[in-house]
Amino acid sequence: MRLSLADELRRFDATKPLASARTIPNTWYMSPDIADLERTAIFGSSWQMVGRLEQVAKPGAFLTADIAGEPVLVVRGEDSVLRAFFNVCRHRAAPLLNEPCGIVTKLRCRYHGWTYDLAGKLRGTPEFDGVAEFQKEDNGLVPLAVATWGPFVWVHLDSPQQSLEAFLTPMPAWSAGKLESLRFARRVQYELACNWKVYVDNYLDGGYHVNTVHPALAGVLDYSGYKTTLHANCSVQTSPMKPGDPNDPATRTRTGTEAAYWWMFPNFMLNAYSGVMDTNLVLPLGPNRCKVIFDYFFAEGTPDDFIDQSVSVAHQVQIEDVGICEEVQHGLNSRSYTVGRFSVKREAGGHHFHQMLAGRLLPVPQEGSGKDCLHVK
User: Fold this and answer.
1) What CATH number is associated with residue 97?
2) Close Cβ partners of 86 (under 8 Å, ≥ 6 residues apart)
3) Among 35, 90, 141, 155, which residue has the least CB neighbours within 10 Å?
4) Half-sphere exposure of 100 (CA within 13 A, CB side)
């Protein structure tokens, strides 16, 4: 018999400490109902990175993104103010902008020609005379909270409960002086046949799979010093780097002695070495598919051949991760598997992630009714 969504969510006990905890059950990685709930309870209620600040630096510059099925746009107004809106025309829900980024002087829907200014106000409604109970001023674009940190632009689909900087704490303090010299170099995208949470689990396993899945990476990380530190909305994995040739792109860095792998709930990763950084943004495409967007940054003046080789090294690591994540998704469908256990030494980050998921998805008693309601923070 199929469980109700509330009963399905109760199968995970978020109160258990790491040593006795079980993972979220396999059905959480496959259920369309849970994927639908995640759209609002996870992606709709957290700060989401949608692009780079340099993409919207000038008046009229815009970028677009899709957050778990919600189309959004960010645009720099003629007054130089950065604004974000749902990328949805108020007439028939067609998109206003279809390109990933560019420059515009107005926002015009290509379906019926409704036009908005860069502040989101409705300005033009062709052949709409005589429509009763309709006011242009009541039909502007629906705004979103937007904020910036470092080289990134973030939006929040509902009313944020805390500022972006508070949400990211302590990453902003850690990054001070580390990102200013970095310049965007390249974007690479991958589509995986796995749930987005499988990819995050893989990222957060404390280096547990590095020696077995990533032989080249294992050759440059000092695994004995690998550690995970947990924070309110994030975690960071750090590892000393083995001594090597600073001009060898396999090290992903030209100087420095430590790698830092930051994860921000629910789906943003920042991988930092000295003079080299890449970010991973994991976007759900359905219960069994996801997209991962890699943006690569290097210190200004880094030679092109070093960048090419470094991105190639990172691509090989990603291909290895794609393979194992897709294999795990297949295994999650087996009747032999329901839940797993966590390595106390290595997988505190994954346990933390599952607890945070449960805190936003699990049913809670509805006050005074004795009934359950779905808790969306």
Assistant:
1) 2.102.10.10
2) 70, 71, 72, 73, 141, 142, 144
3) 90
4) 5
- In this structure, are 237 and 270 located in the same domain? yes
Q: Note the pLDDT of residue 375.
A: 34
d(CA 223, CA 244): 15
The model's pTM is: 0.92
Choosing from 114, 130, 159, the residue where a domain stops is: 159
Tokens of 253: 């860095």
32-41 vs 348-361: helix axis angle to the nearest 10? 80
Residues 285 and 349 in one domain: yes
**Cis peptide preceding 365, ω within 30 of 0:** no
For residue 242, what is the DSSP state?
P
Whether residue 139 is found in the same domain as residue 183? no
Question: DSSP H helical segments within 214-347, as ranges?
Answer: 215-218, 304-332
Of 16, 23, 11, the C-alpha closest to 342 is 23
Beta-carbon count within 10 A of 198 CB: 23
pLDDT (mean) for 280-304: 97
- Indicate if 18 and 134 belong to the same structural domain: no
In single-letter form, the type of residue at position 74 comes to: V
Q: Residue 373: phi, psi to the nearest 5?
A: -135, 155
Place of tokens 């796995």: 194
Q: Is there a contact between 300 and 275 (Cβ–Cβ < 8 Å)?
A: no
Query: What confidence category does residue 215 fall into, taking pLDDT thresholds of 50, 70 and 90?
Result: confident
- Burial of 273 by CB count in 10 Å (0-12 exposed, 13-18 middle, 19+ buried)? buried
- Among 109, 126, 159, the domain-final residue is 159
The backbone region for 206, taken as left when phi is positive above 0, alpha when psi lies in -120 to 50, beta otherwise, is left
Distance CA 243, CA 222 (A): 9
For residue 66, how far is the Cα from the chain centroid? 11
Domain count of the chain? 2
Domain residue limits at 217: 1-46+163-364+372-377
Q: Which residue is associated with the tokens 């028939």?
A: 92
